[in-house]
Design brief:
GO terms for molecular function: porin activity. The chain is mainly beta. About 10% of the residues lie in helices and about 55% in strands. The strands form 2 sheets. Strands 1-3-4-5-6-7-8-11-12-15-16-17-18-19-20-21 form a 16-stranded antiparallel beta barrel. A 4-stranded antiparallel β-sheet has the order 9-10-13-14, with no helix packed on it.
Length: about 375
C-alpha cells in the first residue's frame, strides 16, 4: 500500500508541475548587432566598429502566468549592451536600461504595468519611422537627442520613463489608448540629471491599411549637469505634441511624423533664462518602407529639425536596406546626410559634432542576429 500511495503522490506532483508549466512561461531572448561605420564629421573622416545600428544589441527575460478568468501576470527585463566591446549600452549603472517592468494583463480590460517602460509617445511614433526609432542610426532619434545651446533647458522625449505606471487598453475596433504617469527619477549617465514627474497620453488607430496616432506629453521641471556650465542647469516645464500617420499601398508603406516641443518660460534670473536655452523646437520626418521581396526591405526618410526664434535648423536624408539571410539573421546598410545651419549641432547618437554649422555624412554596413 505504501508503494501505491507513493506512486499516487508522485503522479499527482507530476500533474501539478505539468499544469503549472502550461500556465506560466519564461523566455530568454536577445539580439546581437554589429556594424562598420564611415563618418564625415564636418570634414573630419573616421572609421569605426559600433553596435546596434539596425536593432539594439540586447538580452532579456520575459514571462507570463495565467491567473485565470482572462487575467495574466507578466514581466519583462531587458538589458542593452555594445557587442563590439561588451559594455552596457548608454548607462553603465543600469543593468536593465532598456526596460524593466511587471504588471497585469486582462484580455478584455487591457494591461496595467509598473517600472521602466516605453512611453506612449514612443509607441505612437514608432510605426511611422522607417528606421524604427533605432537609438544609434535613426534620424528621428538623432533629432530627439540633439544637443545645442538654444535648447539645453528644453526637455526631450526620451522614449522610456522610469518609476512609471502604464495603462494600455485592448484593441477596440482598431483604436488603442495609452496612458502613463512617471514619478521623478535620477540618472548619472550620460550626464547627471534629475527629471520631474511626467504625464504621457497616446491614442492610435490601425485598419484598412491606415495607421494614425496622436500623443501628448508633459514633463515637470528638473535639473541637469552640463559640462562647461558653472552650475546645474534648470530644465523647464516642457509640453510635447506628436502626430503620426502611415498608409500602406501594396508593398509600399508611406510614413510621416511630426513632433513639437514647447517649453514654458524659464524663471527670471535662472541659468536657463540667462543663457536663452529654453526654445521651442520641432522635428519632422517623412519617408517610406518598401518590402521589395520577402527577404528585402528598402527604407528612405527625409527629415528636418528646426529651433524656433533662431536660424538653427538641420535638414537631411537617409536611406537603408535590409536583407534577410534567414528568420534570425540579416545584413543591412545605411547612408545618411545632414547639414547643420546656424548654431545647430545635430548628428547621429554617439557622435560628438566637430562644430556648429557643419555637415554630417555617414555610411554603414552591418549584421543582425536574433536569438
Amino acid at each position: 500500500m505504501r508503494l501505491i500511495r507513493q506512486s499516487i503522490c508522485g503522479a499527482a506532483a507530476a500533474l501539478m508541475a505539468a499544469s503549472a508549466a502550461a500556465q506560466s512561461s519564461v523566455t530568454l531572448y536577445g539580439v546581437a548587432d554589429v556594424f562598420f561605420q564611415y563618418l564625415d564629421n564636418g570634414g573630419n573622416h573616421s572609421y569605426s566598429m559600433r553596435s546596434g545600428g539596425n536593432t539594439g544589441s540586447m538580452v532579456g527575460l520575459k514571462g507570463s502566468e495565467d491567473l485565470g478568468n482572462g487575467l495574466k501576470a507578466a514581466f519583462d527585463v531587458e538589458s542593452g549592451f555594445n557587442i563590439n566591446n561588451g559594455a552596457l549600452f548608454a548607462d553603465t549603472t543600469a543593468l536593465f536600461y532598456r526596460q524593466a517592468w511587471v504588471g497585469l494583463n486582462h484580455e478584455k480590460y487591457g494591461s496595467l504595468t509598473f517600472g521602466r517602460q516605453y512611453q506612449p509617445t514612443f509607441w505612437i511614433v514608432y510605426p511611422t519611422d522607417p528606421f524604427r526609432g533605432n537609438e544609434v542610426l535613426s534620424p528621428l532619434s538623432a533629432g530627439v537627442l540633439a544637443v545645442d545651446r538654444n535648447t539645453l533647458a528644453t526637455q526631450a522625449v526620451t522614449g522610456r520613463t522610469s518609476n512609471s505606471v502604464l495603462y494600455k487598453s485592448p484593441n477596440m475596433g482598431g483604436f488603442q489608448l495609452y496612458a502613463m504617469y512617471g514619478f521623478a527619477a535620477t540618472v548619472t549617465q550620460p550626464v547627471p540629471e534629475q527629471s520631474g514627474n511626467t504625464l504621457d497620453l497616446g491614442l492610435s488607430y490601425s485598419g484598412y491599411g491606415l495607421y494614425a496616432g496622436l500623443a501628448y506629453q508633459f514633463q515637470h521641471p528638473g535639473t541637469e549637469t552640463v559640462p562647461g556650465l558653472p552650475a546645474a542647469l534648470n530644465l523647464v516645464d516642457t509640453e510635447h505634441y506628436t502626430g503620426a500617420i502611415g498608409y500602406r499601398i501594396g508593398i509600399v508603406n508611406l510614413q510621416f511624423n511630426y513632433g513639437y516641443n514647447r517649453p514654458h518660460d524659464a524663471s527670471a534670473h535662472s541659468l536657463a533664462a540667462l543663457l536663452g536655452a529654453a526654445r521651442s523646437n520641432s522635428l519632422m520626418e517623412f519617408g517610406a518602407t518598401i518590402q521589395a521581396t520577402p527577404a528585402d526591405a528598402i527604407m528612405i526618410a527625409g527629415f528636418e529639425r528646426n529651433v524656433r526664434g533662431v536660424h538653427d535648423n538641420t535638414p537631411g536624408v537617409q536611406i537603408g536596406a535590409d536583407h534577410s539571410l534567414s528568420k534570425r539573421t540579416s545584413l543591412y546598410m545605411r547612408a545618411g546626410y545632414m547639414k547643420n545651419n546656424g548654431s545647430a549641432t545635430m548628428s547621429w547618437p554617439g557622435v560628438s559634432v566637430s562644430g556648429p554649422g557643419t555637415k554630417q555624412v555617414l555610411a554603414v554596413v552591418g549584421m543582425t542576429h536574433r536569438f
